[in-house]
Each structure stands twice: as C-alpha cells, then as structure tokens.
Write a structure and sequence with these properties.
- By secondary structure, the chain is an alpha/beta fold.
- It has helices spanning about 15-25, 40-50, 65-80, 100-130, 150-170, 190-195, 195-205, 215-225, 245, and strands spanning about 5-10, 30-35, 55-60, 85, 135-140, 175-185, 235-240.
- It has a 7-stranded parallel beta sheet with strand order 3-2-1-4-5-6-7, sandwiched between helices.
- Helix 5 links the parallel strand 5 and strand 6.
- It starts with 6 loop residues before the first strand and ends in a 5-residue tail after the last helix.
- The structure holds nicotinamide-adenine-dinucleotide.
C-alpha cells in the first residue's frame, strides 16, 4: 500500500498501459481518475477496480480546457491531486516525403505532445495551490530518443515529452514537484496488437528478452515512480524498454 491516500489521474486509462496502471495503483491504495476519450471503456475499468477507488472521466487531452477541467474534477471527487500520469497517446505515421502536415504532423503533435504540456501545467498549478508535493509521470517512448521508420511526428512528440520533463523538474522542483518520463519499448497493448502478429513478433525479437513487455511491467514502474520511494528520481528518463535502447545494434 505504497500509495495509500494518494489521488492519481491516469490519462489513456482505458488503454493497455493505462488500464494495467490503474489496477496497480488501486492495489497500492490510491484513488484514481480513469481519464480517456473512450468513456465506456474507462467506466469498464472503474467497474473492475471498484467505484470506491476510482471514477471515469471523458477527456480529450489535446484540449487544455478539458485537461484543466479534469484536474478540477479529480479535486472535486477526491479532495486533492497527488500524481498526474500523462499517458494518453496515439501512434502511427507515414514516410516523411508523403507527409501532409495537416494530416500527418499537427494531429500527432496535439495529442502526443501538447497534451503532456497541458497535463504538466494543470497538475503543477493544482499542486502549488494545494501547497503539497506532487509527481508528474509522462509516457515517452524509445522513439523519443532514436530515429525510426515513419516516426517523424511521433518521435518529435515523444522527444518533447522528455524535454518537458527536464524543464518541469527544474522549474517546479522548488515547489516539491517531481517530474519523470518513462520510455517503454514494445508493449503488448492494443497499440501494438493493431499492427498484426508479424510486426508483433519482429518487435519482440528486438527486445533483450525476445518477448513483448506486458503492460503490468510498465504499471509496476509507474507505481514505484509515483511513490515516496522514488523521492530522488527527478527530471530524468526511466527506460522500461527491456534493453531495446542498449541492445538494438545486435538486431541491425
Ligand atoms: P493504447 O492504444 O492501448 O491506449 C491509448 C489510450 O489513449 C486509449 O485508451 C485511447 O482512447 C487514449 N487516447 C487517445 N487519444 C486520446 C485523447 N486525445 N484524449 C484522451 N485519451 C486519448 O496504447 P498504449 O500502448 O497503452 O499507449 C499508452 C502510451 O504509451 C502512449 O502514449 C504510447 O505512445 C506510449 N507507448 C506505447 C508503447 C507500446 O509499445 N504500446 C511503446 C512506447 C510508448
């Protein structure tokens, strides 16, 4: 029960990593706002973990007013906010030379990049208003630190998540706020499953273990980072990529 009494917002809470994280946080004693564009699926997560521990909220994280309202809703429901997990996102992309910026760049940047800025800003204002410490964890990706096929916009957004995290830790540290980015590798969620079994197998081979990471393994890391046990982890990137970033040359 490392998170007893803590109030956490999980964006993308209805997706693979989000859902596993909500389960883990509740098991550790937290009360959680399961926030997602897909309200029915967010509600299904709440039904599973129990309405005393969680609520479902519809949010489009690419709209600042909606993220602000989400934070206000968490405070209304649970009295405070302790941890913001900026995790909602989309993947995909096209070769650069085929780009239409309106289709291939701006939507991705709004959802995967601007959303994290909005989440950091809204949560930090709440932490400061409460006069209490807080933690902001944001989901980047191995693509935020390397080049990859068809990832021009996705990689840029995920690199920005790391930069936001560093700046947030620097600026907000004096208020007792920690910011950490995580870089999952290949995680067994709908995001990867949608790409089909062939690509799934290739992705698995690119990891040190030869298998995809399970979302529960990411959730365990998030729960640790959210806890006071991680009090000295700030402004940095925690790689939860099963060796991908270190070993990928082996597979070239
Ligand atoms: P997922 O598709 O299972 O879940 C993503 C969730 O985000 C979905 O529930 C979706 O409804 C929600 N969402 C999308 N756009 C939204 C919006 N505008 N507002 C609110 N909610 C929105 O994917 P996942 O694998 O669980 O991904 C979670 C995060 O992890 C993403 O940021 C993704 O980029 C990142 N990531 C995933 C992998 C992987 O291999 N699965 C690897 C690295 C990073």
């Amino acid at each position: 029960m490392r998170l007893n009494g803590k109030v956490v917002i999980v964006t993308g809470g209805a997706g693979g990593i989000g859902r596993a994280t909500v389960r883990k946080l509740v098991a550790e004693g937290a009360r959680v706002v399961v926030a997602d564009l897909a309200l029915d699926q967010a509600q299904a997560v709440v039904d599973e973990v129990g309405a005393d521990a969680a609520i479902a909220e519809r949010v489009d994280v690419s709209v600042f007013a909606e993220v602000e309202a989400l934070v206000a809703r968490a405070v209304e429901a649970f009295g405070r906010l302790d941890v913001m997990f900026n995790n909602a996102g989309i993947a995909g992309g096209r070769p650069l030379l085929e780009h239409d910026p309106e289709r291939d760049y701006f939507p991705m940047i709004r959802i995967d990049q601007d959303s994290v800025y909005f989440g950091i800003l809204a949560a930090a204002r709440q932490f400061v208003a409460q006069g209490s410490p807080g933690v902001i964890i944001s989901t980047s990706s191995i693509y935020g630190e390397s080049a990859a096929e068809n990832a021009f916009a996705y990689g840029a957004a995920k690199a920005a998540v790391i930069s936001f995290t560093r700046s947030a830790a620097y600026e907000l540290g004096p208020h007792g706020i920690r910011a950490v980015a995580i870089t999952p590798g290949r995680v067994n969620t709908p995001m990867i499953q949608r790409l089909g079994p062939e690509l799934g197998s290739l992705f698995a081979e690119q990891q040190a273990s030869g298998r995809l990471t399970e979302p529960e393994e990411i959730a365990d890391t998030v729960a640790f980072l959210a806890s006071d046990e991680a009090s000295a982890i700030n402004g940095t990137v925690v790689h939860v990529d099963d060796g991908y970033s270190v070993f990928k040359q082996r597979f070239a």
